[in-house]
Design goal:
Elements: E1 4-8, H1 13-24, E2 28-33, H2 36-45, E3 53-57, H3 63-75, E4 82-85, H4 106-127, E5 135-139, H5 163-166, H6 183-209, E6 212-217, H7 232-246, H8 252-264, E7 273-276, E8 288-289, H9 299-312
Parallel strand pairs: 1-2, 1-4, 2-3, 4-5, 5-6, 6-7
Antiparallel strand pairs: 7-8
The structure holds NADPH dihydro-nicotinamide-adenine-dinucleotide phosphate.
């Protein structure tokens, strides 16, 4: 039988192209998406072969929806060989925070807490896989890392002492560090959490389960809908800037192929690492393991974030 991969946020951008690449390479793809109608349409539009995928509803902002997704997936009776945590929101122009159904700030709730719960629940399924090895991949980004050129533009991510999480992350708290609401920083913070989660999953479970946990930076995919909430002029100029000035531009198709490669290619069997193709795109450039930011490689941070996240998603 075909191997099965779940991809969150497969209705757009990187996730959609990854779904396509994996379906074309013989995998059975579960597209875990919040908008079923849209997902049905775009899957056809990009030419995913019928019979190569199934769409199951998930709203990562809602913890109940994540739990329901897991029940729905188990009900179809397939093994799970890889999980790709890709969905994300980025809302740079927000003046006031939005809240998840549980009352958490929406960016961190969607990008981090929803995926944190999903990963924890689906470990059971991945453990039963006969794939060698099963994989759990979380999308990262260069903007998590102020030590790199692409991550230097302020505001910088900073989880601080995790006060916002420790205090329960509901009103009046909006940021993980407990400070003033800053939507761009909320996105970057959430991506630092994604990497810390990947590293802590590795530390806790790689040896005992054989599951490979890793992250990747697919390159700057400046055309995706991730930037839909930005100024229209930014949406127009950003791809041009990345193409002609920084040289960081990566097409949606190539970014999806990179995700698929990390899932299927035996060259990506190392666990606990963050893959990158660099921020300047060279022809035939190969992937390499890149050092993550100092906050994202802080083991104490990872453990504390894990414990607080467990409480926030109701695992403890
Ligand atoms: P898109 O906005 O194109 O895609 C995001 C996907 O996430 C969409 O399918 C969207 O669904 C889905 N999504 C958003 N919120 C939810 C939710 N609550 N529940 C379920 N699904 C949801 O962004 P990209 O493809 O650019 O980004 C994908 C990943 O790649 C992200 O993790 C991002 O951080 C990462 N990345 C992107 C880079 C880039 O330059 N674009 C660079 C580095 C990393 P819907 O279609 O319904 O909106």
């Amino acid at each position: 039988p075909k191997s099965t991969v779940i991809i969150t946020g497969a209705s757009s951008g990187v996730g959609l192209q990854a779904a396509k690449a994996l379906a074309l390479s013989g995998w059975y793809v579960i597209m875990a998406c919040r908008d079923l109608e849209k997902t049905r349409r775009v899957a056809k539009e990009v030419g995913m072969p019928s019979g190569s995928y199934m769409i199951i509803h998930i709203d990562l902002a809602s913890l109940e929806s994540v739990r329901q997704f897991v029940r729905d997936f188990r009900a179809i009776g397939r093994s799970l060989d890889a999980l790709v945590c890709n969905a994300a929101i980025y809302m740079p122009l927000l003046k006031e925070p939005l809240r998840s159904p549980e009352g958490y700030e929406l960016t961190v709730a969607t990008n981090h807490l929803g995926h944190f719960l999903l990963c924890n629940l689906m470990l059971e399924d991945l453990k039963k896989s006969s794939a060698s090895p099963p994989k759990l991949v979380i999308l990262g980004t260069v903007t998590h890392n102020p030590d790199e050129l692409g991550g230097k533009i302020p505001p910088r991510p900073d989880l601080g002492d995790l006060k916002g999480f420790a205090e329960g992350f509901k009103e009046p708290y909006t940021m993980i560090d407990g400070k003033k609401f800053e939507p761009v920083k909320a996105y970057k913070d959430s991506k630092v959490c994604n990497i810390l989660t990947m590293r802590e999953l590795h530390r806790r479970y790689h040896e005992s389960t054989g599951i490979v946990f890793n992250s990747l930076y697919p390159g700057c995919v400046a055309t995706t809908a991730l930037f839909r909430n930005h100024y229209p002029l930014f949406q127009k100029l950003f791809p041009l800037f990345q193409k002609h000035i920084t040289g960081g531009f990566v097409s949606e198709e190539l970014s999806g192929q990179r995700v698929a490669q990390v899932v299927t290619d035996p060259a990506f069997a190392q666990s606990g690492v963050y893959w990158s193709w660099g921020n300047r795109q060279k022809k035939n450039g190969n992937a390499f393991v890149q050092k993550v930011s100092s906050q994202a490689r802080d083991d104490e941070n990872a453990e504390r974030l894990w414990e607080l996240s467990e409480q926030l998603v109701g695992l403890k």
